[in-house]
Amino acid sequence: MLMYIIPPQWDIVKCKSLSNLALTLILLNDIFVSVVYPVTVARCHGRREERPGEHKQEVNMNNTTVGVGGISKENTTGVSASVRELVLTALFTAIILMMAFVPNLGYINLVIIKATLLHIPVIIGAVLLGPKKGAFLGGVFGATSFINNTFNPSVMSFAFSPIVAYSTYGIGGVFKTIFICFVPRICIGIGAYFVYTGLRKIFTGKIGRSTTLAVAGVCGAMINTILVMGSIYVLYASAYAEATGIQVADVFKTVMGVVFGQGILEAIVSGIIVSAVGTALMVITKHDK
To answer: Which domains are delineated in the chain?
Structure first.
């Protein structure tokens, strides 16, 4: 989540993190468009065209009827579709891993908890690739949270690292933490995908793709915030109160403040980035959904 406890230096940290995220997505998008996708799909079709009895075709990069990376629109089914999906899945996995392990990019160490922006590539990947791949990317997000909180713990790492939880709360804490660490993140991709496709079907031709992506980005971010903070309240209310220095009776109000205050700010940022990056990728990859 973007933030839970706001230290004095948060504005500077947030601005640096968001600028790093934007630059990273732009860079990786350029690499994908210019190198990874065209080369991978072109090689795949090159192998198919060399089969005996088949007419060998030349890929024309400048032909206006040619699709992304010089592959004609007619060739976007079959093998090329699976290759495209594989390449995109690998790309978004790489983005999540890079953001997770580059300091102050995917995870930001705050006073109480680690803030994160990793839900954004999960949402974009889910919309482009479907709910199964979205769930997988969310699982990757959860795995990086587990690793990060295990080897670089904070006060609240017991809620995200089963190893830390076991040392404090025993085997019962392990199952609680696994749920908090993975289930909300897996639900991000699934929820964002169905919000996007549902809105596209309900409001066909009435609202633009970028608007629908923005709504999916907002909903995906809120799913993350509500499920994580809600799970912490249900499973670790006393521990959260102790970690934040508040009374147990005040935990619910604090959680609601995070969801409806900071969670909304996070959702706005997510909606803007998902709309901008997602729209560009859909145009590039000829995404029709």
So the answer is: 10-36+88-284 (1.10.1760.20)
